[in-house]
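Run: sequence + calcium ion -> complex structure.
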Amino acid sequence: LGVLLSVPSAENANKINGLGARRNGPGQRPPRRVVTSTPVLARVRPLDSPSMAEQSAARILVIEDHADTRRFLESMLGREFEVLVSENAVLGIELARNQRPDLILLDLGLPDVPGETVAREIRRATATPILILTAKASEEERIGGLQLGADDYVTKPFSPQEVVLRVQAILRRDRKS
Ligand code: CA
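>> structure
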């Protein structure tokens, strides 16, 4: 139990100093993902409260250069999740590394770096699930995106409901594993 109780402080410490799990040196506490796989939440939480909002809000990173789409996603996802946004790839990759989001929404058509490269860079640094947003719709391109390590795909124009449902589904899968 002592180990479990120490989790929030370790997590906060990481938030404060901005260090990712990978920076943890020898003798420091283990990365958050290892610890959260323990069934603590299942024990203290009644089974009849499936709402995601009742769990600690997942942190979603939105990397999208189109301002309207970005704001739209931010307000929509903000009802349920903590949302971080980046309008370009460079900041997006940095946030993905340092802010430890639970899920990343990645637009493939970014101005500074091709989205495919962004996905690869993120994958190199973290196992955070990636949901790709793209106007590219051909099967070949979809498969290409999934091969980059993306977890799912939403083709623009997308409905708000579809994005939220896909985000929830990925988070559920991720929490179980
Ligand atoms: Ca774009």
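>> summary
Residues 160-176 form the longest helix (17 residues). The radius of gyration is 17 Å.
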